[in-house]
Amino acid sequence: MNLKRVGNQTVVFANPPVILSSYSVVGPMEAQGPLGKTFDKVWPDNINGEKSWEIAESKLLQEAMQGAIDQAGVPNDQIDFMLAGDLLNQIISSNFAARKLGLPFIGLYGACSTMALGMAVGSMLIDGGFARHVLVGVSSHHDTAERQYRLPTEQGGQRSLSAQWTVTGAGAVILGQSGAGPRIPAVTLGRVLDYGETDAGNMGAAMAPAIADTILNHLQDLQRQPTDYNLIASGDLGSVGANLTREVMQRSGTPLGPEYTDCGLLVYDQKQDVHAGGSGCGCSAVVFAGSIMQRLKAGELKRVLLIGSGALHSPTSSLQGESIPGIGHAVVIEA
């Protein structure tokens, strides 16, 4: 058996999967941000005629996944697996979208790291010979996340300055064995780390150690430096978590330069009063499916490292005083 595992946590593919298409759907607030013109579809409001925010989120995901299917031009009977996840209890947005699309379904939960996790697992399925095409998508919604994790929005509760704004959006990609598009030559699956952060309003601090750990293991496994990438983008650390990640990397002897940024810092403008930045499964998904994919296709970027960041807590665990574990999964994308 030819083991494809390299180093501590990295898998290098013999036949790198191709990203055949990408599609993003966002709410109006995301469209008003700096990346507004890079999204494929914009909703007029966060509910878009549906009877609840939760059903609206599932519809977001359905539209993003159908958009990726249509762009790729791959018949449904040639899509072997649908991989999807979201932030809601029992990943209902993904389950209901899967009910609508009717594809063989693998539900994933990595909190806000789920887009990178889905791309990693989908790439393994394709390189392992288990699939020809895999549909990967995730969603998040500001109002569903607020209702589940924090206070009802109607109460108008005061948000801390370290808090982030959950992106209302969904992103999806089609991965294939062959074809035209950026390729995924390697992925690094992360470890769960917990340094005792208990403030659910400061998820960036909870996730930063795991992101730094994944980046360090990735670079060590492949014998690379941060400068070997045109762009290193974490998922949704926001300003607090991104600064902490830089600090940890600096102390570890591998400083991050201008190639590093965070999707939570890119998706909104500071004038939009989102405090520490964007968050949610949809944050890295819409930034990657939109802006980053467009830059890869245009030749502006040659090699990208996307690290999905996840805070692995629940409303129950937070109420019981548990700390917040974090995880990061990294995907290499090359033009």
The SSE string, one letter per element, is EEEHEHEHEHEHEEEHEHEHEHEHE
User: What is the CATH-assigned architecture of the largest domain?
Assistant: 3-Layer(aba) Sandwich
Unreliable residue stretches: none
Helix content: 25-40%
CATH-level-4 superfamily name of the largest domain: Stage V sporulation protein AD
Q: If you average the pLDDT, what whole number results?
A: 94
**How many β-strand stretches?**
15
Range of strand content: 15-25%
CATH topology description of the largest domain: Peroxisomal Thiolase, Chain A, domain 1
What report would you give on this structure?
By secondary structure, the chain is of the alpha/beta class. It folds into two domains: 5-176, Peroxisomal Thiolase, Chain A, domain 1 (3-Layer(aba) Sandwich), CATH 3.40.47.40; 183-334, Peroxisomal Thiolase, Chain A, domain 1, CATH 3.40.47.40. It contains ten helices and 15 strands. The strands form three sheets. Strands 1-2-10-15-14-11-12 form a seven-stranded mixed sheet, with helices on both faces. A six-stranded mixed sheet has the order 4-3-9-7-5-6, sandwiched between helices. Helix 1 (28-31) links the parallel strand 3 (18-26) and strand 4 (41-42). Helix 2 (53-72) packs across helix 3 (92-101) and helix 6 packs across helix 7. The longest helix is centred in the first third of the chain and has 20 residues, at 53-72. It is globular and about 45 Å long.
